[in-house]
Amino acid sequence: MAVGVFIGIFGSFTFGRWLLLKFPSFFTLGWFRKKGPSEEEVRSASFKMWFVGHGFSDGSLVSQGKSKPDMEIVTRVMGPEIGYLTTPIILLQCALIILGQHDNLPKGGVFTPGIVFGPTDLQERLQENGISFDVVSKRAISA
């Protein structure tokens, strides 16, 4: 916490910002440095993200005007280091889908990634490249 306060104070002044940018490792006790992570740090890192979703067990419940979801699903996504390894994997797989399956993608306008990649094999492609998707639990919830 003291380091954060120190950085906040130094960041308020031109000279302080210059010092922080010039000697980041010294002023952050090694937390930040000018060089990126070493190859060993990248190889040894991984990520795990959990998602909790609420929704309906049947699409007809929505059309009936049911206002509260009746299902909960917990999923987990895991993979290699997220910045230097996973990001390029995802970017390249998305680009390959756009190039190879452009006839099957929605036409016109601006779309969210879910609309564009939902009906594709993106998840399978990512799993083949070391990014796993798991359903941890799926249960009914009371209204």
UniProtKB/TrEMBL annotation:
<dbReference type="GO" id="GO:0009247">
    <property type="term" value="P:glycolipid biosynthetic process"/>
</dbReference>
<keyword id="KW-0812">Transmembrane</keyword>
<dbReference type="GO" id="GO:0005811">
    <property type="term" value="C:lipid droplet"/>
</dbReference>
<feature type="transmembrane region" description="Helical">
    <location>
        <begin position="6"/>
        <end position="32"/>
    </location>
</feature>
<keyword id="KW-0472">Membrane</keyword>
<dbReference type="GO" id="GO:0005886">
    <property type="term" value="C:plasma membrane"/>
</dbReference>
<protein>
    <submittedName>
        <fullName>Uncharacterized protein</fullName>
    </submittedName>
</protein>
<dbReference type="GO" id="GO:0005739">
    <property type="term" value="C:mitochondrion"/>
</dbReference>
<dbReference type="InterPro" id="IPR051276">
    <property type="entry name" value="Saccharopine_DH-like_oxidrdct"/>
</dbReference>
<keyword id="KW-1133">Transmembrane helix</keyword>
